[in-house]
Here is the input.
Amino acid sequence: MTKRLAQLGLYLALALILAYAESLIPFSFGIPGIKLGLPNLVVVMLLHGGKGGLMPRTAGRGVGGVRDALCINLLRIVISGFLFSGLYTILYSLAGAVCSFAAMLIGRRFRKFSVVGVSVLGGVFHNVGQLAAAVLVTQTVYVGYYLPALIAAGAVTGAVLGIAAGELAPYLMRLTDGR
Amino acid sequence: MKKRAVTVKKADLILIAVCFLAAAFVAALGLLHREKGTVAQLVYDGIVLRTIALHAGQEEPSAADDGYYLITYRDDVTAVEYCADMPALDLPEYIDYNLVSVRDGQVTMCAADCRDQICVRHKSVSLAGESIICLPHGLVVEIIGERQAADGAPDGVTR
Here is the structure.
């Protein structure tokens, strides 16, 4: 139990570092909301390791699984929100993260997708969720104008992060496993 | 050659393709509806603060409302002030503001004291349906075209 706690703490720290790194990169396309989503790397990895993991090499090893991934996801949003941005950002991140997480769970259940596909689903639905939150907050439907750009961007960043997560996970799991 | 950890499955590629198709489809829908905006609306909390004409009227010559619009927020009081030239932004700290400029049908967020400055970095907007949003202040600058104006202006505003 203590070991698990320590391992999850490491993953949380990693997610926060990635969020910090991302906040340092001025990354603007004139369209708000397009981000790399680096911290999601950690969530994708956790979602795929552990019990019933998708990746053959990490399945059943170390921490991971739905509960751990959700826990780290919520914690990193709240903490990095307070550290690097503000309450508003937390609201949007939460909306995006909830959509994204649900989409990834459904995609994972499908068993047809690999890490990459699930991560693409996560990326796309993160953006869709944020846009939905923006519609609610600003009380206008015109923000739907961004939808195509956000879907495409979500697919690209999701694919990149999925590949990175898949390649990194075996090493990271081995490290945190202490083997 | 070491075995890669990631195997991209066929379903992944199909999914990515579907995403791009969906994006292209939505974009195409948007392009079909593309038209120059006739007015810009400053919307705060779902309420239209000011409607600005972007182009001079063709039948009856009336000037477009070019210039600067300074929106200030002080507690719950929101005000819009028109300035022909760039106003000096020497406001006291407790007053938040957004400065919108309108020139030749292009609407730009020139300055704002919001914390994320996303609205200021946003490109200029001119086409119907485009908008600039300042989330921290809750201000939306919407461009509205003839078609929407004909349907009754506030059809995009849900309340």
Observations:
- The longest strand of chain B covers residues 67-74.
